[in-house]
Write a structure and sequence with these properties.
Rossmann fold; 27 strands; 3 domains; 616 residues; 19% strand; Jelly Rolls; alpha/beta; six-stranded parallel beta sheet
Length: 616
């Protein structure tokens, strides 16, 4: 037997830097000082780094980092505004040539040195993608990366309709040349005609602080002390109800140019000792853990990180209309209250929540659901789709599909012995899960128009010796590369200890021979084994929480180990076939992916010999 080695350029070493710099994801931001953009960049970059991606953060203007970063993140400051070396003549010439294409935007040529300096850094080594955050920095990033064979993404953090933002005309001209523009909410896409706009939320992070006992009467707001936050409105609204609710206080955390005005309003309304302006805090989670009510009074916001954190900490929010994102985040009457942006309405809303503790606690109990609704995993998966991760790695994960409770319900149904092979032929629940919108959307994102090819339930009881040998799904069927994608939906938590799927990222680029070697504990009945060297350091565990799924290419090398834990591991596999290819008599079951429950003629279940691989 001749073992086939996998291409080295697809190697990623677990726990260390990748040998392939094409995997580098570079974030470019003006500064990592305190602010919503820096917080979002820190959270997403750290998540990528924690799962093993190569990540870099470039700042333009220095300053101390306000948020913790994963130790694997490469950090660099370019020192804009400080004296230093001039950019290379080659980069400056390239930037000026690009600027000349936009004669009505003279600021681009005037900014050539700054853009060229950034270009020199980006040109030092290959990168998978470069992501520019906010306005001027995003435009600079797109122009600096032009012609360097890396994807470019502009990441907008504010509501583009809310107020005048820098370089408006430059963004309108340059954004359509980027690979994508990330906006806070779907409604914001209309601000950049011609650009490929994708609405992606900022991630909601789980609170690291245990919720403190409430009832002390603490109203909290967090944000820069600037005009658009409208903290003057909030203080005036509080003054209307302060005398009737003497046990309540208002504390606004933040710093900014409006401090003198706000302090004057506090004095004029006799609110000393009731309203506090302590400045910024490094312990925002501790502050929120002790709060009873969070108020968002802004005139305009993008994706409101402070609101997400308050809700994640279990604080009932009161919000005013301040952009499309806040309307998406807060479900009125479910996990917060929305009121009009007037002093009277905010005052009435605050007093209602101050006096109705049952309502306040009911809203607070649902507020932490933002952590699941806008999870870091969900946001990362959306960025993966933008960056072409499936084409590069042959797999996307984790992709949120179900809540934990929904996954538990499906796991009970999947325990039926008759549900192992193609359960969607026999059971309504299996047809429903195979056609779940999140599952179908993910499949369509990589295959285009597609249909359900087969389904399967997989179960490993505690301390099971069952395993899946290393293989490619294409060893069973003659479909072409990328014609089939398999969705592996975790109905229980799947980790290294209970035998989760393992993959070799990038191995879908080449097919390898397989041999049949049946074994008693191999979940693949024919015992297919790929004749390939799989080195342990090249293996990635596909760790999924109950309700999450992975989606993999039919040529990706994958397998799984025995369940050595006390926990069962259950999964549901849906295989999708690209419709344009046609079944040609090869399909076991072809069902339109978007109408899994529609009446149709069901074909007989396939025999065991023709059943596809166990898909781990």
């Amino acid at each position: 037997m001749v073992a086939h080695s996998l291409p080295r350029r697809f190697t990623r070493h677990a726990g260390g830097a990748s040998s392939v710099r094409e995997r580098m994801r570079t974030f470019v931001i003006s500064t990592m000082a305190a602010g919503g953009s820096a917080r979002a960049a820190a959270n997403l970059a750290s998540h990528f780094a924690a799962r093993g991606d190569d990540v870099e953060i470039l700042t333009l203007y220095g300053g101390a980092d306000a948020y913790p970063l994963h130790p694997r993140i490469r950090r660099r400051d370019l020192g804009f505004g400080r004296s230093g070396d001039a950019p290379s003549a080659e980069s400056r010439s390239a930037v000026l040539a690009e600027a000349a294409r936009y004669p009505l935007l003279p600021r681009l040529a005037a900014d050539a040195n700054a853009i060229a300096t950034l270009r020199d850094v980006l040109a030092e080594e290959p990168r998978e993608a470069v992501i520019g955050l906010e306005h001027v920095t995003a435009v600079r990033t797109i122009l600096a990366a032009r012609g360097l064979s890396m994807r470019t993404i502009a990441w907008e953090q504010t509501d583009p309709f809310g107020y005048a933002t820098p370089w408006r005309n430059e963004r309108l001209a340059i954004y359509p040349t980027a690979d994508a523009v990330v906006v806070p909410a779907p409604a914001h896409a209309a601000a950049f005609p011609g650009a490929r706009c994708v609405a992606i939320s900022n991630p909601a992070m789980r609170s690291p602080v245990q919720r403190a006992s409430r009832g002390a009467g603490a109203v909290v707001a967090v944000g820069r002390l600037s005009w658009e936050k409208q903290f003057d409105l909030l203080i005036l609204a509080f003054s209307r109800v302060a005398e009737r609710n003497p046990e309540w206080t208002l504390t606004i955390y933040g710093e900014g140019p409006e401090r003198p005005t706000l302090e004057r309003i506090v004095r004029e309304h006799g609110l000393d000792g009731r309203v506090f302006l302590p400045g910024t805090t490094r312990d925002v989670w501790g502050v929120l853990a002790a709060a009873d009510l969070f108020v968002l009074s802004s005139y305009v916001e993008g994706w409101v990180n402070a609101l997400l954190e308050a809700m994640a900490a279990g604080v009932a929010p009161l919000v005013v209309p301040c952009g499309a994102a806040a309307e998406i985040i807060v479900r009125d009457g479910v996990d917060g209250l929305r009121v009009a942006r007037t002093i009277d309405a905010v005052a009435a809303g605050m007093e209602r929540l101050m006096r109705d503790s049952a309502l306040r606690e009911r809203l607070a109990s649902r507020a932490p659901e933002v952590v699941e609704r806008f999870s870091i995993e969900r946001v990362a998966a959306q960025f993966d789709a933008l960056l072409g991760t499936f084409e590069r790695d042959g797999i996307l994960f984790p992709i949120p599909v179900l809540t934990r409770d929904e996954a538990d319900d499906y796991a009970k149904l999947a325990g039926d012995p008759d549900a192992e092979a193609n359960p969607h032929l026999r059971f309504a629940w299996a047809r429903e899960l195979a056609g779940h919108p999140a599952v179908v959307r993910a499949a369509e994102a990589v295959l285009g128009d597609c249909e359900v090819f087969s389904t399967q339930t997989l179960f490993k009881p505690p301390h099971s010796r069952a395993f899946v040998s290393w293989h490619q799904d294409s060893a069973w069927r003659d479909f072409g590369p990328g014609e089939v994608a398999s969705a592996w939906i975790a109905l229980t938590d799947a980790g290294a200890d209970n035998g989760c799927m393992q993959v070799v990222r990038g191995s879908h680029r080449a097919r390898v021979p397989h041999r049949d070697q049946p074994e008693a504990d191999n979940m693949i009945r024919l015992g297919k084994h790929a004749e390939a060297d799989v080195e342990p350091e090249r293996v990635t565990d596909v760790v999924l929480r109950a309700g999450e799924m992975s989606l993999h290419h039919n040529d990706l090398l994958h397998g799984s180990r025995p369940n050595e834990s006390e926990r069962a591991r259950a999964g549901f596999v849906v295989r999708f076939l690209r419709r344009a290819q046609g079944a040609g008599g090869r399909a076991q079951v072809l069902v339109p992916a978007r109408t899994p429950s529609a009446p149709r003629a069901l074909r007989p279940a396939p025999s065991e010999e023709s059943t596809p691989c166990a898909s781990c």
